[in-house]
Amino acid sequence: MNFQKKPRNQKLIFLEEEYNEYVKNPMNLNITRGIPSEDQLMLSEKMLGILKKPEDFLSNNTIDIRNYGELTGILEAKKLFSTILGSEMEEIIIGGNSSLSLMYLVLTTKLFMGSTPWKKDGPIKFLCPSPGYDRHFSMAEKLGFEMIPVEMDENGPNMTKIERLVVQDASIKGIWCVPTYSNPTGIIYSDEVVDRLAKMPTKASNFTIMWDNAYVVHHLTEDVKVAKNILKACKKAGYPERPWMFCSTSKITFPGAGVSAVAASGKNTAMLAKELSYQTIGFDKLNQMRHVKFLGNRKQLAKHMQKHATILKPKFDLIQKKLNERFKGSDLLTWSDPKGGYFVHLTTMDGCATKIVESLDKIGVKVTKAGATYPKGDNPKDNSIRLAPTSVELTDLEQAMDAIGLCIEMVSLKENMK
Ligand SMILES: Cc1ncc(COP(=O)(O)O)c(C=O)c1O
Q1: CB-based contacts of 109: which residues, under 8 Å, 6+ apart?
Q2: Residue of the nearest CA to atom 2 in ligand 1?
Q3: CATH 3.90.1150.10 location in the chain
C-alpha cells in the first residue's frame, strides 16, 4: 500500500485531537439494531383495529378464525404470502410471529425426522456465506453444525467454492442464503448464482437451501429487483425438495407481532405440517386476517412499503453522502450502497474493524460488534462493520457518521504506521 508517512502522521495528530474532544464529551448513540423506527411502526397502527364486523372473523366465508383450526394458515393469508414468496398456495404454511422459528423447525425436522434424518449420517456441516445474518449462524451452532464460511461478492456467495465442496462431502447438508438485499451487504443474488445453487450436484442426497427472503419487498428505490425464485429454479433442475423459502412481516408491520411464512415443495410442506401438528393446534389467525385486510394484495403492499422507503431512504442517503465526502477514492474504506434492506456494510482495512468499533464505543457510539456477521463472530480479516441506520433519527445518524468517519480514519492510519 502506498503510504506517505509524513502527511498521514500530521493528519493523525489532528484526528486524535478531535477524538479526544469526543472522549471528554461522549455521545449516546446506538446503531446496532436492524429494527424499524417508531414512525415506521406508526404506519401499521391502523391494522390493530381493522377487524370489526362479524364477517371480518370469517375465512373463506365459512371458517370462524376466532376458534381452533387451520393449522397451516387461513386461505386469505396463503394467497397474500404466496404472491410475496412466489409459490403456489398449496406450497405455503403460514406461521406465527417469527420466520426464525420456522427456520428452526425446518432444521430440527430435517435433523431428526423423516425417512432420511441428517442425524443418522453423522456430523453435519453447513455453508455460511459471510458476512451474513448472525442469528442464522448461532442457530446452526446451537444445533451442532460445523459452519463453513463462504466469501460473498456482489453476485452472492462464491459458487465455484460451493460446487467444489458439496460434490465431494456428504456431510454438507445445506446453506444459508439471504438472496434479496442480503443482510448485511445488501446485494441481490444474480440469476446465475440462483441457477447454480438449484442445479449443482451434491453428495448429500438431502441437501437443503435455507432461502431467507426477509427483505424481499423492502425496496428503497423505484429500481425494484429481487433474486430469482429458487423454488421454481430447483423444480426445473429436478431438485424440488432442495429449497425452503421464508419471509415475515416483521419489517413490514410489527417485529414480534407480525406473521411469518414458509414455502417449499408440496412434499416438504406436508412433512412440516405433520411436525407442526404435534406442537400447536394453529397459529394466530386473527393476526393473519388483520395482515390480509391491511396489506391487501401485492399492489397495496407495495404502496405500504413505499411509505417505509420514504422514511428510510434519507438515512441511507445520508450515510452515502458522509462516506463519499470522507472516503471517496480513499484506500481506507469501501462500502455498500444498497437499494433496499436494512443495512450498510463497511469493509475496512484488514485488522482494523475491531479497533474502530472499540474506539467508537469509548466515545458513546455503539455499532454492531466487528465480526458479528461471521460464524462464531470470527472474521479472520477483521475488516467488516455493519451499520444499522433504520431506527435512529437523522440528526443522531449524522453525528454517528461523523464519529464513525473519524474513528475509521484514525485507527486505519495508526494501524498502518506500525
Ligand atoms: C435475514 C433475516 N432473517 C430473519 C430475521 C428475523 O425475522 P423474524 O422476525 O421473522 O423472525 C431478520 C431480522 O433482522 C433478518 O435480518
Answers
A1: 271, 272, 275
A2: 214
A3: 5-31+302-415
Which atom of ligand 1 sits closest to the CA of residue 133?
A: 1
DSSP string, 331-369: SSEEE---SBSS-EEEEESTT-HHHHHHHHHHTTEEEPP
Indicate whether residue 260 lines ligand 1 (CB < 6 A).
yes
| pLDDT recorded at residue 3 | 47
CA-nearest of 264, 291, 252 to 209 is: 264
Return the pLDDT at 6. Answer: 56
- Please state the atom number of ligand 1 nearest to the C-alpha of residue 249: 10
pLDDT digits (tens, 9 = 90+) for 314-373: 999 999 999 999 999 999 999 999 999 999 999 999 999 999 999 999 999 999 999 999
Residue in 32, 41, 84, 99 to alter for ligand 1 test, most ligand atoms within 8 A of Cβ: 99
Whose alpha carbon is nearest atom 14 of ligand 1?
A: 34
3-state secondary structure of 150: strand
Within 259-340, where are the H helices?
266-276, 285-295, 298-327
Rg of the chain's alpha carbons, rounded to an integer?
23
For ligand 1, the distance from its centroid to the CA atom of residue 257, given in whole angstroms, is 13
- Does the reported pTM lie above 0.85? yes
Enumerate the CATH 3.40.640.10 domain ranges in the chain, comma separated.
58-296
| Rounded percentage of the chain residues whose pLDDT exceeds 90 | 94
What is the CA(214)–ligand 1 centre distance, in A? 6
Q: pLDDT tens, 248-281?
A: 999 999 999 999 999 999 999 999 999 999 999 9
Query: Does the 5-31+302-415 domain belong in CATH 3.90.1150.10?
Result: yes
Ligand 1 nearest atom to the CA of residue 256, by list position = 9
From the CB of 250, is ligand 1 less than 6 Å away? yes
Angle at 214 between CA 39 and CA 252, to 5 degrees: 25
Fold entry, domain 58-296: Aspartate Aminotransferase; domain 2 (3.40.640)
Q: 137 in ligand 1 pocket by Cβ < 6 Å?
A: no
